[in-house]
Amino acid sequence: MDAIASAEVLVTCPARNFVTLKITTVDGVVGWGDATLNGRELAVASYLRDHIAPLLIGRDSARIEDMWNYLFRGVYWRKGPITMTAIAAVDMALWDIKGKVAGLPVYQLLGGAARDGVLVYTHASGTDIGSLMDDIAAVKERGFKAIRAQTAVPGVEGTYGVKHGKYYEPASTSLPEEQSWSTEAYLNFAPTYLAKVREQFGFDFHLLHDVHHRLTPMEAARFGRSVEDVKLFWMEDPTPADNQESFRLIRSHTTTPVAVGEVLSSIWDIQHLVSEQLIDYIRLSVTHAGGITHMKKVFSFAELYQVRSGSHGPSDISPVGQAAAIHLDMAIPNFGIQEYMGYPDLVADVFHGGPTYEDGYLHPSEVPGLGIDYDEEVAAKFEYAPKYLPVARRLDGSVHDW
Ligand code: CS2
Ligand code: MG
Predict the structure, then answer these.
(1) Would the CB of 96 count as within 6 Å of ligand 1?
(2) Does the beta carbon of 288 lie inside 6 Å of ligand 1?
(3) DSSP SS3 for 300
């Protein structure tokens, strides 16, 4: 047996914060795991460093399923994003190690390639309709076959998803920025600009839109119906999914496909959404939902109900977590699409390797394991800086879901 010799938690901030777990075995094999939870990074770092790392030493690095159960069932306090992100980091690092020991990229260990490449969508946005159109044209130029479109709603300074510069980075201030929100203005405006996108660019690419939990079920039903002619690939997170049952109402009013899951972290959080076919795409991420081991189960469960994957892949999941997602995407039969935002340039100084992009698709690295190397020396130069996600307030000053 190749036992775990050490487990270190590394925090770096090359333009944005990333938490990475480094597991080293007695034989000297190193595995990397992503433990980044945007705006709550140090909570996961502490959970790993203070509560999990001491338990790992001396355990068999090859027993991934056993380790998952030991960390999930063995702590009494289960689930939740902090716990599931910490478990995910251990899980990814152990898959990385298993791949390196076997001399195979992780997707081969998961059953091999079920497709030739991973279809990705990226983001286009604008501060107004004109700049959205320019951004879509630029994104199409780069070969993307699927594009998420978001535009600032006039008079709503806190519209989700509008880039300032090359990437959209909502967690940028050292205390949460408070932004205003008007559901009425959004509902009046969003369907009109999505229709204009189709008018200008036609239907030969997938068009996605993220509602980002901002609507009630009935508002979401109305929105879904009002964009049916636009033929969205999906409307994402139309309403918060705390009450899974509420999606039945949306479903009964519109044929616009629904994607949910980026803030959820376990198979039980999506059990009814999937088994009652209330959604079409499941968007949990490997990084926030227990790693490859748990996500493989989530996708197999979803397969029974013709629900496909659409994994969350923003720049606040590290390249290690992204690589893990791409290996899984390659191997599952019910893959749908993968989010791919890209990273600020500095990130490549710390994380080397990973999937390659070509003509709308990502291809996993063929290097054994997950295929990412973490440069500890460079990473140490970028110190953690508190960065919070914004808070939304309605025009009357009350707090709204961001
Ligand atoms: C998102 C994210 O990628 C997405 O679809 O909704 O931008 C999300 O807001 C961030 O990951 C929050 O950390
Ligand atoms: Mg989203």
Answers:
(1) no
(2) no
(3) helix
Amino acid 172: pLDDT: 83
Distance of CA 26 to the CA centre of its chain: 32
CA 152 / ligand 1 centre spacing (Å)? 16
Looking at residue 145, its pLDDT comes to 98
Is 83 within 8 Å of 47 (Cβ atoms)?
yes
Q: Any idea which ligand is nearest the CA of 338?
A: 1
Helix (H, G, I), strand (E, B) or coil at 24: strand
Segments of the chain scoring below 50 in pLDDT? none
Instruction: Give the chain's domains with CATH numbers.
Output: 4-104 (3.30.390.10), 109-368 (3.20.20.120)
pLDDT computed for residue 302 by the predictor? 98
Is 123 designated active site? no
CB of residue 170 inside a 6 A radius of ligand 1: yes
How far is the C-alpha of 267 from the C-alpha of 92, rounded, in Å?
18
Q: Which atom of ligand 1 is nearest to the CA of 237?
A: 6
Atom of ligand 1 nearest to the CA of 39: 13
Asked if 76 is an active-site residue, the reply is no
- The span from the CA of 17 to the CA of 12, in Å, is 6
What is the C-alpha separation between 121 and 273, in angstroms, rounded? 23
Nearest CA to ligand 1 atom 4: 314
Q: Which alpha helices (H) appear in 227-306, and where do they start and end?
A: 247-251, 271-275, 291-303
**What is the distance in A from the centroid of ligand 1 to the CA of 401?**
13
Ligand nearest to C-alpha 388: 1
- What sign has the CA pseudo-torsion 97, 103, 105, 108? negative
Check 160, 186, 193, 374 and give the catalytic one: 160
Going from the C-alpha of 60 to that of each of 27, 56, 96, 166, 329, the distances in angstroms are 12, 9, 14, 43, 27
Q: ∠ CA 304-309-311 to the nearest 5 degrees?
A: 150
Name the one residue in this structure whose structure tokens are 């390196």: 100
Q: Does residue 197 contact residue 133 with C-beta atoms inside 8 Å?
A: yes
Structure tokens belonging to residue 10: 């590394």
Q: How far is the CA of 102 from the centre of ligand 1 (A)?
A: 34
The alpha carbon of 314 and the centre of ligand 1 are apart by a number of angstroms equal to 6
Pairwise CA distance, residues 33 & 47, whole Å: 14
Tell me what pLDDT residue 168 has.
87
Closest CA to 33 of 97, 129, 122: 97
